[in-house]
Predict the structure.
Amino acid sequence: MSTSYPSGPPCAQRGGHGHPGLIHRFLDRLPFEADDPIVTLMEGSTPLVHAQWLSERVGAQVYLKIEGANPTGSFKDRGMCCAVTQAVKEGSEAVICASTGNTAASAAAYAARAGLRGAVIVPDGKIATGKLAQALMHGARVIALRGNFDEALELVRELTDKHPIALVNSVNPYRIAGQKTAGFELVEELGQIDALCIPVGNAGNITAYWEGFQEAGVAPRLFGFQAAGAAPLVSGLRVEKPETVASAIRIGNPARWEEAMTAMTQSNGRISAVTDEEILDAYRLLAAMEGVFCEPASAASVAGLLKFGADGAETVACVLTGHGLKDPQTALEQTGSVLPCEPNLSAVEKAVLG
Ligand code: F0G
């Protein structure tokens, strides 16, 4: 039995659950056609939450773009649905990426969805537990490199030059195409937006937002933030041994270095460093004051806003790139301990009421 649909795919892919997947939602602005073999997990259309406490602190209207609400818990899904769709279109049988964790989790999920083999190369011991669990659960081949992200990326680039495996890092233009849709969403929801605060690692996301904003005809100032121990775009020098608690942005030689600097200059923005301590402060404050749990790297955007201020911007969006549950270990190290309690009322009363 066959059913025909007026413009392509079945309704489950088109918004049976309230919103369409990202490619269908923005089909007219992406390099795909409705009858392409679109791979989706209904990514995109993430919540934009007004941040009351933060707004008061910095004297601007601050909004949080909760990218951790994407299907695998990070913004990577926006680019990955496009990169994997293109891989399927081109007849690839396998995808690969180097990753600090989130790209790996996303690539593994979309590869599983598309029936492709997936391999991910991650820095040994330097990826958050949740991300590792995701990549493994989705059936990717997980390779723990005795080296850092920058070395892993160099190696997968060499490998994919030699073998017919689709490279799904953000050097892949389809990743950028997908990720720019977050810029479209912000413009649709906010209309006026004066500044964007965003964490920067490999610099694909800031590149994508700038593309999206330009296509939408707006030009907010881009405030990019790197961790102080991994801030090559701030110093202008490649960092050989990047270090930070924000493992997702532990990157010393960003692939989209030049594009990020162009975005910065054109938007009259800046790129600054925040220390691990500042990142962790923002991480705890977001959870405690705004009820939003993001991962440490994501909190760099808010750490930067708290440190440097809104600089005259009235409407500010902070991109919270990944969910807090990705990295439970760091969360537990940052919090108080649980209260042990005997199973009787007086003990419970004492524990609850203090
Ligand atoms: N925030 C999170 C949670 C990330 O995972 C990343 C990058 C970034 C910010 C920075 O984005 O690289 O486009 O500047 N994670 C990559 C990965 C490197 O492998 O998951 P970027």
